Amino acid sequence: MGIFHAVILGIVEGITEFLPISSTGHLMLTAKLLGLTQTEFQKSFEIAIQLGAIFAVVALYWKTLLRGLDIWKRVLVAFLPTACIGLIFYKMAKRFLLANNGVVLWSLFLGGIFLIVFELFYQEKSEAVEEIKSISYRQSLCIGLFQSIAIIPGVSRAAATIIGGLALGLARKTIVEFSFFLAIPTMLAATGLDLLHSAGTFNKQEFFILSVGFLVSFFVAITAIKFLLAFIKRHNFVSFGVYRIIIAIIFWFFWMRK
Length: 258
Prior knowledge:
Blueprint: H1 3-16, H2 23-33, H3 40-48, H4 50-67, H5 69-95, H6 101-121, H7 137-148, H8 157-167, H9 172-198, H10 204-231, H11 238-256
């Protein structure tokens, strides 16, 4: 894996982290297209560069985060289920799920169908929660449970939290921004846990490659966040569901020819 690969993967991560299409799944599929082997470093790279995209949230919302004690309380409650499930299933997820492209494709495909069906039947209620500080702690915990499903690559952390939040009665903009904030402790913990186990095996070149991917994903994610906030003002997520189905089918045919 070289600098070119790190830049490409960083761009993919920055674009996909906050969209309901699975950044982990896209990183795995992109690595496949680039001919990269799923080494332990490759798996760690795909986890760690997600933190670069998360730092884009901090850069854009730092004032809100500094003053938002009520926000942090709800974010931390939502983070608890993910923390527990992540600790329990970390080794299994990294060893088996992060190396299984079939799981990614099925998750993208079925998740796309679910996203379309959900949006076709969903109607936002007039009493939908408009402020993050108005989210109840029960709702926060439930959103965290939804996010935990995304331990399966291809599900999409963003899709799981956003659909969960909408189903629980949150306004679309509210749950999208809450999903941004919830990503901060989630990816800090995921990256920290992985580096704790793996960083000792990295050489200087690998740390440099990781830094390149991190920085690229950070800058690209800033644009992606702004795009998503503008997009949800006029659109739902049906188009993302269609995209998930198409990309899964394309890759199935791609691998069937191999």
